[in-house]
């Protein structure tokens, strides 16, 4: 575990440092508050030991700043002051424990161990891998009861792997966990320690404990499965899945056989050569994932021949096609954990947009909703009878919009609702009815995951409710946009990612890329290199040249492995590359590693440290994206500028903590009263900005009025002069008040100066627009 010690007493530092390193902790040392802040931002620490009396920035203010920056690990404060008021001040600043100097090193280390155990309950448990055991309390590792003689770093390596048995650690992650900044070596040192640890484990009979995942890092090897029948089950499942999926594969083989015949009887027409090259390329990229690694190798050889040697040895090409035919005539090779071995149903076909299933026979309303659905990013399926609804539900829509009233059967709507909630308990259902009776509302309220909306609402309002509900259900989802012209690869990605809670947005036509990217706002982009019309490298360059999207992580999948191609990917701006065919562990590890790195970078630049909402930089990117959508679909985009008027006076009279509290309260109200997809950001020291896509000014004004009412209620609880609790708000709307971010902001600032929205203790807040 890694600890940051921030203290300016050199004797104390050396004493504690020797004791902690003897207990196998990795320790970094900072001698003033500002340096400690820099260390805390640069690395992940399991605990911070912090002296109160520090130069440049004292421990209380540093502790408070760390908590504002969302550091959630334990903080242990050290001070020579032992008064209760001093302890209260430290604990109120966010410390977890408080130790008064002078104290013994033994007591301090015991407090540290207690805080770490509280943070990680498993820290007190014995870690095991078969007959291998490690006791963190005694710092002892044994195999079959015999102690292992390990160096501190070897012990730390073994503990790291045992604590995270499923995780893959590359050299950089190992360096971050086990070495401090002062003694950080290169990656060769990590490999040397891994090698020595393996040798010591092998010497006592513990072989193959740590495995090397090529191109990714190291992890603890899974224990052998004592049930051999699992492999037989996996093989049977793989063969059954192959029977369902081999149609497109055989079609590609047929194209290659046609090319072989053409070569034997004469020349190979250019259009057939192009089709054969495309078929070989796709086979090279997918066959290995379907249990035919030799098929992938043959597909690559055929692609190379068609690309470079169409006038060469034709018999060689024919032989390669014959070999591929023989390989595919066999059963797929499988092992436990393979892609096919876990398929127990037909793979779902990829879709670009969330699917909204409408169950209603009102043709006019359905037509209106279908016309509006494009603007909200929904793909609509329709069922006009309960029988059709049952069939459509089998295709797993993302949401259901259900009318309770069917003319032929007054109870048909309730029967469908019962069927949906029973068979698909996790499927959100939006129920609308013409009657708006309390009994209908009660029937909906009694069913989990169901929400009521009157049928008198317009199509736009219905879709806004559906969109908001879906966003709430998917708020914690990770979304990945994959562009590949091979549907089998897209199906493979969907199956892999769905098991890890990742939502896949798939696209097989790169010409629709930009529209899909703006609409879906993914967390990561997966590209194939060779696609019709536009290559993956060209798409990558487009993303990297755009100020809004240039930080999006990009991962390439390709059957091409030559150094020149890989170099061109990274030159275009790729973050990572995986060769086809790929395995699930490799794909998932690469994706999550890349997302984690991107999240850390976003937290540093995209989030305001005080309020936790978006920063000005992040809001600018989001506004550019919504402006593009607003122009494309002729949908309004509103901007609101909100200002806390007397922040400087509040800070001077009551202290900066009071001003910070008010700013955080405003941010919380904005987050609560606006949608997840709205832009909510801190724009300046006392100014907030809100961007709302798809709503007109009046709708936004209503929400801001509720913000003011909530702000007034909070103000009543604070010891502030009523005259200081005022907010000013200006509104603008695209395209009427501006067509870009600067013009919208200037228009909102103009209305802010002309019209005030004031909230104080004596007057109700008013909104003038």
Q: Total strand count, please?
A: 25
User: Mind summarizing the main beta sheet?
Assistant: 5 strands, parallel
Which stretches of 5+ consecutive residues score pLDDT under 50?
Answer: 226-231, 335-351, 757-769
Assign a percent range to the helix content: 40-55%
> Could you tell me the mean pLDDT?
79
Strand order of the largest sheet: 2-1-3-4-5
Note the total helix count. Answer: 27
Intertermini distance: 57 Å
Strand content: 15-25%
Computed CA radius of gyration, to the nearest angstrom: 31 Å
List the helices and strands and how they pair.
Elements: E1 2-6, H1 10-22, E2 26-30, H2 33-42, E3 47-51, H3 59-68, E4 75-79, H4 84-92, E5 97-100, H5 105-119, E6 127-129, E7 132-135, E8 140-143, E9 146-147, H6 152-163, H7 171-178, H8 187-203, E10 210-213, E11 217-220, H9 229-265, H10 270-286, H11 293-308, H12 314-328, E12 355-359, H13 363-376, E13 379-383, H14 386-393, E14 399-403, H15 412-423, E15 429-433, H16 438-445, E16 450-454, H17 459-473, E17 478-483, H18 487-498, E18 502-507, H19 513-520, E19 524-528, H20 536-544, E20 554-558, H21 563-572, E21 576-579, H22 584-605, H23 616-633, E22 637-644, H24 647-654, H25 656-673, E23 679-682, E24 687-693, H26 697-715, E25 727-734, H27 741-754
Parallel strand pairs: 1-2, 1-3, 3-4, 4-5, 12-13, 12-14, 14-15, 15-16, 17-18, 17-19, 19-20, 20-21
Antiparallel strand pairs: 6-7, 7-8, 8-9, 10-11, 22-24, 22-25, 23-24
Helix pairs in contact: 6-8, 9-10, 9-12, 10-11, 11-12, 13-17, 14-15, 24-25, 25-26
């Amino acid at each position: 575990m890694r600890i940051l010690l921030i203290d300016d007493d050199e004797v104390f530092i050396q004493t504690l440092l020797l004791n902690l390193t003897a207990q196998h902790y990795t320790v970094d040392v900072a001698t003033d508050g500002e340096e400690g802040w820099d260390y805390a931002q640069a690395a992940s620490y399991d605990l911070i030991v912090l002296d109160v009396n520090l130069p440049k920035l004292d421990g209380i203010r540093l502790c408070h700043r760390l908590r504002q920056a969302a550091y959630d690990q334990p903080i242990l404060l050290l001070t020579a002051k032992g008064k209760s008021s001093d302890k209260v001040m430290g604990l109120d600043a966010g410390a977890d424990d408080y130790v008064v100097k002078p104290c013994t090193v033994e007591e301090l280390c015991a407090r540290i161990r207690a805080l770490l155990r509280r943070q990680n309950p498993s820290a007190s448990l014995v870690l095991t891998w078969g007959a291998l055991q490690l006791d963190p309390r005694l710092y002892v590792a044994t195999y079959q009861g015999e102690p292992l003689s390990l160096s501190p770093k070897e012990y730390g390596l073994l503990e790291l792997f045992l604590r995270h048995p499923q995780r893959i650690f590359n050299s950089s992650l190992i360096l971050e966990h086990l070495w401090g900044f002062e003694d950080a070596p290169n990656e060769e040192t990590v490999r040397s320690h891994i090698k020595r640890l393996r040798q010591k484990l092998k010497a006592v009979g513990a072989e193959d404990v740590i495995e090397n995942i090529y191109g990714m890092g190291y992890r603890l090897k899974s224990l052998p499965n004592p049930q051999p029948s699992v492999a037989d089950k996996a093989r049977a499942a793989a063969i059954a899945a192959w029977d369902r999926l081999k149609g497109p594969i055989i079609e590609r083989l047929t194209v290659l056989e046609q090319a072989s015949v053409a070569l034997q009887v004469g020349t190979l027409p250019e259009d057939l050569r192009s089709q054969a090259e495309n078929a070989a390329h796709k086979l090279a990229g997918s066959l290995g994932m379907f249990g035919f690694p030799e098929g992938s190798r043959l597909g690559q050889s055929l692609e190379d021949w068609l690309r470079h040697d169409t006038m060469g040895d034709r018999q060689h090409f024919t032989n390669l096609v014959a070999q591929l035919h023989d390989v595919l005539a066999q059963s797929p090779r499988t092992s436990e954990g393979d892609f096919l071995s876990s398929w127990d149903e037909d793979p779902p076909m990829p879709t670009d947009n969330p699917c909204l299933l409408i169950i209603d026979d009102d043709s006019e309303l359905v037509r209106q909703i279908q016309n509006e659905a494009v603007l909200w990013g929904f793909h609509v399926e329709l069922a006009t009878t309960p029988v059709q609804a049952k069939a459509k539900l089998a295709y797993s829509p993302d949401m259901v919009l259900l009318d309770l009233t069917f003319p032929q059967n007054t109870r048909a709507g309730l029967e469908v609702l019962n069927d949906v909630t029973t068979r698909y308990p996790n499927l959100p259902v939006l129920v609308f009815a013409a009657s708006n009776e309390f009994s209908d509302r009660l029937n909906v309220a009694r069913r989990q995951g169901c929400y009521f909306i009157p049928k008198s609402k317009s199509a736009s309002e219905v879709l806004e409710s559906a969109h908001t509900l879906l966003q709430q259900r998917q708020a914690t989802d990770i979304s990945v946009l994959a562009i590949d012209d091979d549907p089998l690869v897209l199906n493979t990605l969907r199956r892999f990612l769905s098991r890890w809670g990742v939502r896949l947005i798939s696209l097989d036509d790169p010409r629709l890329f930009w529209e899909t990217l703006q609409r879906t706002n993914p967390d990561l982009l997966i590209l194939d290199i060779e696609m019709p019309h536009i290559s993956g490298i060209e798409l990558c360059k487009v993303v990297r040249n755009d100020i809004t999207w240039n930080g999006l992580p990009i991962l390439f999948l390709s059957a091409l492995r030559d150094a020149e191609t890989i170099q061109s990917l990274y030159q275009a701006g790729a973050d990572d590359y995986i060769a086809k065919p790929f395995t699930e562990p490799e794909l998932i590890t690469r994706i999550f590693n890349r997302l984690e790195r991107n999240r850390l970078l976003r937290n540093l630049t995209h989030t305001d440290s005080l309020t936790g909402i978006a920063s000005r930089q992040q809001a600018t990117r989001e506004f550019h994206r919504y402006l593009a959508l607003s122009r494309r679909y002729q949908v309004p985009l509103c901007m609101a500028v909100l200002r806390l008027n007397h922040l400087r006076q509040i800070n001077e009279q009551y202290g900066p903590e009071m001003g910070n509290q008010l700013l955080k309260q405003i941010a919380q109200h904005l987050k609560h009263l606006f949608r997840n997809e709205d832009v909510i950001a801190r724009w300046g020291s006392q100014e907030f900005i809100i961007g709302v896509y798809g709503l007109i000014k009046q709708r936004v004004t209503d929400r801001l009025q509720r913000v003011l009412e909530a702000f007034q209620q909070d103000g009543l609880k604070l010891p502030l002069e009523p005259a200081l609790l005022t907010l000013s708000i200006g509104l603008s709307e695209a395209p009427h008040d501006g067509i870009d971010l600067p013009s919208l902001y200037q228009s909102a600032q103009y209305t802010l100066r002309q019209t005030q929205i004031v909230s104080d203790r004596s007057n109700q807040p008013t909104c003038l627009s």
